[in-house]
Amino acid sequence: MELASKYDPKEVESKWYEYWLDHKLFSSKPDNREPYTIVIPPPNVTGVLHMGHMLNNTIQDILVRRARMEGKNACWVPGTDHASIATEAKVVGKLAEQGIKKTDLTREQFLEHAWDWTREHGGIILKQLRKLGCSCDWDRTAFTMDETRSKGVIKVFVDLYRKGYIYRGVRMVNWDPKAQTALSDEEVIYKDEHSKLYYLKYYVAPEDQASIERKDEGNVMHKDKKGYYAVVATTRPETIMGDSAMCINPEDVKNTWLKGKHVIVPLVGRVIPVIEDGYVDIQFGTGCLKVTPAHDVNDHMLGLKHHLETIDIFNDDGTISEAAGLYVGQDRMDVRKQIAKDLTSAGLMEKIEDYDNKVGFSERTNVPIEPKLSTQWFLKMQHFADIALPPVMDDDIEFYPKKYKNTYRHWLENIKDWCISRQLWWGHRIPAYYFRTADGKRDFVVAETAEEALKLAQEKNASLTAADLEQESDCLDTWFSSWLWPISVFDGINHPDNAEIKYYYPTSDLVTGPDIIFFWVARMIMAGYEYRGQMPFKHVYFTGIVRDKLGRKMSKSLGNSPDPLKLIEQYGADGVRMGMMLSAPAGNDILFDESLCEQGRNFNNKIWNAFRLVQGWQTDDSLATPEANKQAVAWFTAKMKEVNAIMDDQFKTYRISEALMTVYRLFWDEFSSWYLEMVKPEYGKPIDTATYQATLHFFDDLLKMLHPFMPFITEELWQHLYDRKDGESIMKATLNIAAPNDDDKKLCDEMEQVKQVISGVRTIRNQKNIAPKKALKLQAVAANPYAAYDDIVKKMANVESVETVSDKSADASVFMVGTQEFAVPVGDLIDVKAEIEKQEKELQHLEGFLAGIQKKLANENFIAHAPEAVVARERKKQQDSEEKIAALKESLSHLKAK
User: Fold this and answer.
1) What is the pLDDT of residues 429-452, one digit of tens each?
2) Residue 18 burial by CB count (10 A; 0-12/13-18/19+): exposed, middle or buried?
3) Residues 817, 820, 822: CA angle, nearest 5 degrees
């Protein structure tokens, strides 16, 4: 089959992806090979592909394809996450469009709608990943709420409850009023907000007004015609309906006059005590703190300590509750604006100031969270922190970049219990069952099934039937299923001794973003050691955040996030993959520029055209191999060894973007610009068979080196390179390149010098405007250390002769390669006057440069304190400059003599 004149990604990509699928080339089954396993960070089941997914999955595919080519049994497990909050919100939104409220439905009816939504929209993102070339074993696709994973989640919950790690209790939680569910601390994002600080008047109760007196000289006392009052500064005036005390620091001299008094909550009229506690920050505001035990975690602690009344003034949706007595049913944010006006009108507002503070927002719905007392389920975390910290700090599990070890350590050393319950219907329903004991008390049991729960409950009340049990309505935090992912995808929870979990676990690499190091990475490590007794993965590669070229985070609102599928349509998957990786050093933010995809597409075209060039050569078996070709083949063989060793090291240290640049330069600079030019036959003439076969072999190896980065074009060209059998693929081809030895290094170093000789001649040709077809002569002054490569120099520089001379021609232009002088006689081909001017300018520059070096070397302090290698480098610069100056002076002398 003839190769098309131009590379068409659309045709190539669809053809080869189907070929890979048809021949089950992504499939993996346990065997006697070394396994290489990656589990995909499961995207939301209803999500669509964005640039972050593109980056993450490109890196995973590069690692998997490379492992496959190394002969490992590579297994990349795909799957999706049920995303409780996000999916439920979308389903609720869809129902609202149909005029249906969630509250109008039973749980079972709502879940039918949720499953319909999931079946309709779920898995779209996995299909989109195929466009990128992702080589997942699609037969293994898992879903966090499929039967196997769900059974495992429930099993783990019951196990941890019975171990005493899970408990149920009333705690202050982060409440999301939009999703109407509790959140874990990790799901709260703190943002800088331009707020207001409201200074409110709390009048001293009438019965205490008469006894007010100055206690200390530093007392700050407020009084108007209504009497004495204290001033409280707050950013949340809408919570005053929940105030049950005012607190002062006993050491604060400003407020000692308030000790033992009572004050009146403004507008509300409730009389509350003034309590004393060292918790109050003397420096903040006025030193008087309003205490709202139901709506602030620290106030709650004060409430418990001082036995204060708890008044919950918020409904679950963030509106004001009946308990508040004022503004009932109104939204909390509307009340904040209104109450400020009402307090001012009533003369109860001392002043209002601008104030910058941090406000917690829901990571999922982006609304301000509300601290709320709520009965929730929690997982004790200290045990898990204790087992998960040492493996990372001791590098049993290696982080790339290493800087994230400190982030990880800080979180684990300050761990808090994990609130694992969510007030949602879409998710794993908590397997707790409530009932009445024989004496009428409400109790519960935890069990994997309702049948098992009934047996346990009957131990406390023998008369119970299944109808008497009521299952917990809350479901589990989505991350409670995700933390089991490396185990559950191989069914290692339900069947811990099965062949697959024993073969594929622990997995090899995890590729993820640092933003979920707490949500997911740390918790997977905890689950791995708890349920397998070993790490879930050996290495964690943290990607950066994809930003635009101005450094802004990509978002729909800014309109700076390109559609990945449109990029693939325009530049081809290989072009986009390369564009992503060119800007993606591990752990650093990616400044994505679409021009990088264009560079990727151009590289595709370069590879394609180079292949067509070689494919177009005719061979002649009778031709002997020219010496220049033998040298070129020997050099490029050594160069391949050198570069392959560099790439091996780059992959071992997860410098994947550097590895791409390394092979990019090898192909573009060394192979296309140098090697092919060295061996290319004259136009219309054949090439010797040995050189041609060597060139095809180089192409074969180059395609293998490029394949993990650019799978489609490399498969297409590899299939055209030689006759292949049906089912063969480059992805299963092994790259066998030996390690470089000393001779290889010597050859590579010598060829770098030869390339400088060729470049020197070309530079003179360009500077003197001498036609490329005009053959020149080259003189090596005194000696020619590269005489063995004269045939290559002649061909590449269009030089008719290379001779060693003691004195160069008077009309020669000179250049240096290291300390070796070369000359190109140019005769009448140049403008002597212009050449003298140019060389004098260059001489002036070199003499100035030399003077700077001599000054530095004359500095005794520099010589005494600079490292030996630095001093040696400066002396080498001095020597090179002196030799170049001498050569220029001699050249000028000859030119001026004309």
Assistant:
1) 999 999 999 888 999 999 999 999
2) exposed
3) 80
3-class state of residue 556 by DSSP = coil
Tell which residue, 720, 754, 402, 392, has the closest CA to residue 587.
402
**Contact of 691 with 699, CB cutoff 8 Å:** no
62 CB-near residues (< 8 Å, 6+ apart): 581, 656, 708, 709
Report residue 27 CA to chain centroid gap: 27
The pLDDT value recorded for residue 547 is 82
pLDDT by residue (tens digit) across 260-314? 999 999 999 999 999 999 999 998 889 999 999 999 889 999 999 999 999 999 9
| Non-local CB neighbours of 609 within 8 Å, separated by 6+ positions | none
Phi, psi of 232 (to 5 degrees): -115, 130
Q: Average pLDDT for residues 96-105, to the nearest whole number?
A: 92
What sign for the dihedral angle of Cα 781, 782, 788, 791? Answer: positive
CA atoms lying within 13 Å on the CB side of residue 26: 24
Residue 508 has pLDDT above 70, yes or no: yes
**How many whole angstroms separate alpha carbon 631 and alpha carbon 674?**
12
Q: How many C-beta atoms surround the C-beta of residue 80 within 10 A?
A: 24
Tokens of 705: 């080196």
Query: Please, is 713 exposed, middle or buried when counting C-beta atoms within 10 Å of its C-beta (0-12, 13-18, 19+)?
Result: buried
DSSP-assigned letter for residue 681: P
pLDDT category of residue 653 using cuts at 50, 70 and 90? very high
Around Cβ 437, how many Cβ atoms within 10 Å?
12
Between the two ends of the chain, the Cα-to-Cα distance in Å is 63
Query: Which one, of 639, 233, 165, lies nearest residue 420 by Cα?
Result: 165
Listed in sequence order, the residues at least 6 apart from 868 whose beta carbon sits closer than 8 Å to its beta carbon are none
Cα 526 from Cα 510, distance rounded (Å): 15
**3-class DSSP assignment, residue 858:** coil
Residue 460 scores a pLDDT above 60:
yes
- Categorize the per-residue pLDDT at 890 as very low, low, confident or very high, splitting at 50, 70 and 90: confident
* Beta-ladder partners of 713: none
Q: What is the side-by-side order of every strand in the sheet holding 442-446?
A: 442-446, 432-436, 470-471
Q: Contact at 8 Å (CB) between 607 and 717?
A: yes
3-state helix, strand, coil in the chain (%, to 5): 50, 20, 35
Residue 587 has pLDDT above 70, yes or no: no
Residue 552 per-residue DSSP state: P
Lowest-confidence range among 75-79, 157-161, 385-389, 550-554? 550-554
In contact, 531 and 156? CB cutoff 8 Å: yes
39-70 burial, b at 16+ Cβ within 10 Å, e below that, comes to: bbbbbbbbbebbbbbbbbbbbbbbbbbbbbbe
- 581 and 62 Cβ atoms separated by less than 8 Å: yes
Q: What is the pLDDT of residues 105-136, one digit of tens each?
A: 999 999 999 999 999 888 889 999 999 999 99
Confidence of residue 558 (pLDDT cuts 50, 70, 90): low
Average pLDDT of span 374-382: 95
Using CA atoms, how far residue 706 sits from 620, 653, 658, 695, 696, in Å, is: 30, 18, 13, 16, 15
Question: Residues with Cβ < 8 Å from 17, sequence gap 6 or more?
Answer: 130, 133, 712
The H or E element that residue 230 is part of is strand 227-234
- Residue 771: per-residue pLDDT: 85
What residues contact residue 80 under an 8 Å CB cut-off, 6+ apart?
Answer: 42, 43, 44, 45, 47, 122, 123, 125, 126, 141, 142, 143, 144
Average model confidence (pLDDT) across the chain: 93
